[in-house]
Structures are given as C-alpha cells and as structure tokens.
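During the second year of the project, the team shifted from modelling isolated chains to modelling whole assemblies. The rationale, set out in the original proposal, was that interfaces cannot be judged from single-chain predictions alone. As a representative example for this report, we include one of the complexes processed in the last quarter. Its constituent sequences, exactly as entered into the pipeline, are reproduced here:
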Amino acid sequence: MRIGQHRPSVDEHAALMRSLLVFERRTETVALDEALGRITARAVTSPVDLPLFRNSQMDGFAVRASDIAAVPAKLPIVGEIPARPGQPAPLAPGTAVRIMTGAVVPDGADAVVPVEDTTVVDGVAVIETPRVVGEYVRDRGSDLRAGDELLPAATVLRSRHLAALAAAGIASVEVLAPVRVAVITTGAELAAPGVDPQPGQVYDANAIAIVSAVRAAGASVVISARVTDDHDTFRAALAAATDAADLVITSGGISMGDYEVVREVLEPLGATVTTIAMQPGGPQATAVIDGVPVISFPGNPVSTQISVEMFVAPVLRELAGLPAARRQSRVLDTDVRSVPGKRQLLRGRAVGEDGVTVVGGPSSHLVAGLAASDLLIDIPEATVQLRKGDTVETLAL
Amino acid sequence: MRIGQHRPSVDEHAALMRSLLVFERRTETVALDEALGRITARAVTSPVDLPLFRNSQMDGFAVRASDIAAVPAKLPIVGEIPARPGQPAPLAPGTAVRIMTGAVVPDGADAVVPVEDTTVVDGVAVIETPRVVGEYVRDRGSDLRAGDELLPAATVLRSRHLAALAAAGIASVEVLAPVRVAVITTGAELAAPGVDPQPGQVYDANAIAIVSAVRAAGASVVISARVTDDHDTFRAALAAATDAADLVITSGGISMGDYEVVREVLEPLGATVTTIAMQPGGPQATAVIDGVPVISFPGNPVSTQISVEMFVAPVLRELAGLPAARRQSRVLDTDVRSVPGKRQLLRGRAVGEDGVTVVGGPSSHLVAGLAASDLLIDIPEATVQLRKGDTVETLAL
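Output from the structure prediction step:
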C-alpha cells in the first residue's frame, strides 16, 4: 500500500473491472452440432411453416368429417398412407384411408379417426363417433409460420432450441464468439507440474487455476504462457497476448518488492497498481495495452484464484450466458477473527442446509485448503470478530 | 395401450430406467488441462509437502527472532534472497537478509519482518517490533503433508482442485470416463436439416435434440445415426451402437401403427414396449441388447425431448456430477385443463419470481413452443382442472 493513497474497496475494484471488461463481440456461424451452450448473435426466423405440411396426429383413418356426421358410418378403406416421402392422392368422398402418425393428410380429408376408435370389417372402416373438422389433424404452420421468430437474439442454446432450429431445416446458426483470454503467469521460481523442481522452485498452480476458471466461465483461452521475471521475456509474452486476445490476465510480479516484472513493465505503460482492501488478494493492477485490458493478480495462488472469482469470472459468466455464482447467508459453526479495514474471504465448507465451517487458515498459500472448500465466507471490512452462530454471507465456488 | 395391461406411471417408469441405467464406469488418465469438470476416479494423495519448502510470507527481512527480542534491534543486511531457484546460505546470528515473498527462508532464520516495519540505514536494518518464532514464515508442509489426501474420490474437478494438483506437481489425473451414448433416430419421413425435403418428409429434430441433451447431461455421444423404417438397416445400426456404447437411445417406431421398425425389431429380442401414463411421450420401450440398455422414445419431437428430460438426463447428470434440474412450485397465471389418468407435462415459461404461464398447446409436435419454454409444468395424473392462481410443480429446462 502506498501511504496516503486511497485503498479501493472490493466493490470499487469490481466496478473498475466491469468498466474495463467491455468487449466488442465477434460472431461466428457454427453447425448445430457445435452450438450447444452458445448464444445466438441475432434473432432467428423460421424459413418454413412448422409443421411443413398438414399431417396426422394419430395412427388411424383420414376421413371427411361430414361423412361421419351420422354414425355408425361405414367407409370403404381405399389405401394406406405411411409416414414416408410422397404426396398421397386426394381422398374421394365417402371413403377412408388408413394413415400413420405424421403422414400427409390427403386433400379432401379433414379429420383423423384414431385406430382404436375404429372397427374394420371386410375392408370397411366402421366408425361410431362423429369428429369435428380438424380433429387429430396438425395444420401446416400451426406451430410457427415461415418468417416468424423461432429464437430471439441472445438465446443460450439448449437442446430444445437446437431441436427447433433442426425442425425448421436450419443446419447452422450465428452465435457470439467467446471472449478470447490470454494467461501469463510470471515468476522465476515457477516450475511446470510434472517436472522435478530445483530448490527454491514451486510448481505453477496459477496457470491451470486461471485457465480453467476462465473456461468454466465460458471464455476461451487462446494463450497460456509462463515467464520468468525478465522484462524482455514478459514484454514479448504481453505483445503476443494483446495481439491474440480480448483480455490478458497475469499473475505475480505486482507487489512492492524487487523483481516485480509485471509492475515494472506495466507501470511505465500507464498501469494502475494498487492495493485493495481485500484479503487475500490485496495487490492488484489494471492496464489497457494496445487497446486490450490487462488484469494483473498477485502471485500467491489463493490470492489469484480468489481475485479471478471476485473480479473476472462474474463478468465472463454473464457474457457467456452462465448463471452467477450463488450467494447465500449461512450460520458460522465457529468463532472467526478478521482483519480490520479489509474485506476478508475465508475458505469454508457448507454444513447442512445453512451452516458453514471454516477450512484452513487465512494465509494465501493454502492451495489444498482452498481445494477442500466449496465456498468463500465474505466478511465485511469493518467486521473484526464473528461468533459461532453469527450469520455470514457466502459465495459458492 | 394394450387393453388389460397395467399402464406404468411416470415414477414407475423412471424407477425402471434407474435400474437399467447402471454402468460399469471406465476410467482414463487425462492431463490437468483436459480435466475441468471431470470426476476423480480415486482419491489423490500429495506426493510432496505443501509448501515444498519453508518460505517467506512477505517482502521483508529474514531474521532470528531472538536477535530482535530487544528493540530497537540493528542488524547488518548480509544479502538478498529473491524468489528464484537456489538454496540460500545459512543466516549468521546477529544479521538480517532481505527476502522476497515466496523465497526460501535460510537456515538459521526463524521469522520475517515485513519491509514496511523496517528502516534501513547504511546497510543496517533497524527493527522496532519484536517477532515471535515463525512469524510470516510458511512452514514446509503447513498446507498439506506428503501422503495426505489432496482430493477425495468422486471430486468434480473445478479450477481450485486443478490448482491444488498442479501445486503438488501432479500433471495428470485419473478420472471417470463419460458414459458413451449412441443415438439412432428412425423414420422413413426424416430429412437431414439443410437438405430440401421431399413432400411428406420432415426435418429430423430428434437427432440433435437427443445428442445435445445427452452432452448437456455430461455423457459423450459416440454414434448418431439416422435410419429409415427398414428392419435390416435398423438392425445394423443397433449392432454398431451396442458395440460402441454403454447406452443406446432411439426415437420413433414404437407405437402401435404399422412400419414401427424399433418395436418390430426389438420386441422379438425381449423388449418391453408399453404406454406410460404421461402426456406427451406415452409410448416407451426398453430392452437390453448384448448387455447394453436400449431406451426407445416416441418419434414426436416434443415427446422425445420430454422423455429424455424425465428419464435419461437425470441419471446421466448424476453420473457426471452435474446438479439436478431445479423443481419449484409456481403460481399459474391461467386456467389449465388436463387429461385424466395421465401425468401431463405442459410447456411453460417463468413469470417473475414464482409465476408461470403456459406456452403453446399440449400437442407433441410443437417444437417451436418447446423452444420458447423454460420449464415444464408437471400436472399429476389425477388432476383434470387447474385454475389461475393454483400452485403447480415446475421442472426447469
């Protein structure tokens, strides 16, 4: 923290993020098979009537309703119309034709008598109940007319929407392209998982943490790079990132110590480096480089993960049509101390319907503790002490 | 419906489905980058202590706590330890060493004094506050010990779990393989979307409906085939499906009419073909062919989609660690008539917090109406009439 500077609150920093994370949305056309969960870029109108043609709702007999006004009616069966390609011959007055569900109702017929309401004797259908015109007939366009809106813009495509598009013969759909994110983790101490670390090295947990959180929030990761604290290396990674992505997220290198590559490179480029009133995750930086927002989180893995969850994931989820993380009031099963002047996000686990227990300590290196949690306990800045039985706000992970 | 046969209720049919949809789960090992949303096949223990080594929680000075018991203490600064690979030299008594967050705390040092609590004068750190042993030092293994459980079996892998695996140096994880589903849509009348249909043909909406509903429920689709009502063609598709999949889903061809290829082929193989007390979606069939469950839904697209939602998706979602569809009581904004003796699933749309309106009619061909809905209104078998203001059970789509 710089002495004398205002220390932004979590809400102020979240508002800043929202103002930065505004993207010109590109669109792309994808096959239905690739469209699940995507968002329609514009309204889709049906090119056809649905149903495409007048068809039978039942297995039965297509008739003229006027021919069975007086019952019992006996109509000679003149043929059969399966649900197959082909246009059946018109139905002559005084006759019936066997018809299958979904088959074309022939010209001349205006009702269908279900097979279970018909007796067949020597090629004659004996019908005991009159039917009104249109009964068990699905009219062309009775679901939707050609030119009508089939789906509005901004529809998150579920199976039922894809089915409706397919039913109208539409094989591809214009959808919003996902926000493209580049991730750069920084630090000379970082080793890739799966490789034996040297003394003083730690495995890079932030790359997979940010990459997978971004994907879970519906955006796509176009670059994931790991760099040391060398300025030129970071500058090169940053240039590639701003070139390819709508948003760049970095971790590490923004505190007030030495060897803080992100701060040292970005600050001369106009970045705002600050410490917000949040624990963990105090150090934060934001910049716009070559028109692309660059969001920088601290290197401690818990700080980075909570920062992503608080500031980036909510915006990306909204842009991807995903629901917001659930907030819920829960009752503490233990006493909790907090830090005055900082909004603290403790790791916790739900207990029953509305209870919560604290998992691990507040320190920002406890990645296993975070993994064992299923929510964050959100303690306001001014709160210093909470008692067992107190109600706290929680945020589902 | 066959006269004299019991007509199963929705709950009975759902119970039958649950008894059929039991799969031997295969496992596979995937890289962390591919593991988001997957389910751990077994518990994962950490191969290392976390943290890997004793390191500093702050930018500051590593000292012996006993050297600053009497303040102000003045300790010559003997060097600097960045967060970089390498093992620092032990700290001599009566000295301090500059240290960065995450850097190795040298042997001999047992506390870190934050830089903001220190004044540096001519290469000497002036410290005004005593520190207890261990202050601002993260001990090796303080998050987790080697051999401790990092993640339990059956963990649905979120970003925080992947981060914990990465932090422990684990680069891949054994997860449950998704249930493999084959989809066969049947009907001589079906045309592929994007192709001009002949008279009497309809576009196949069921293929994409089932395929995408299965994927949304966390299973994988290994085959999607469209066949006519020719027996041999269907038999060949079925053989390929049971060979490749854990579950086969068919649509069409199971009613009591003629040209019902699924019923005609499966019934001699021991299939149960029935009509359940549900509208839409009455005709249903189940079989086990070559040890593989085969679930057959009617061809009407709305019937098929509602059948998938009622009988298959809940089981697949549970197997994939996805949450169940939300059920909620809502207040009708209109009168509704229902069919006696059938559980009716009307298409509806949420109105405000707890209201619901009916979308379209009850007929099973209204695919656009289903697409415009966001929930199903679940009306019990015995209910015939509901009034505006009545409370109904709804199932989110």
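Chain A touches chain B through 97 residues (CB under 8 Å). Chain A has four domains: 10-25+178-319, 27-50+149-176, 55-138, 327-396.
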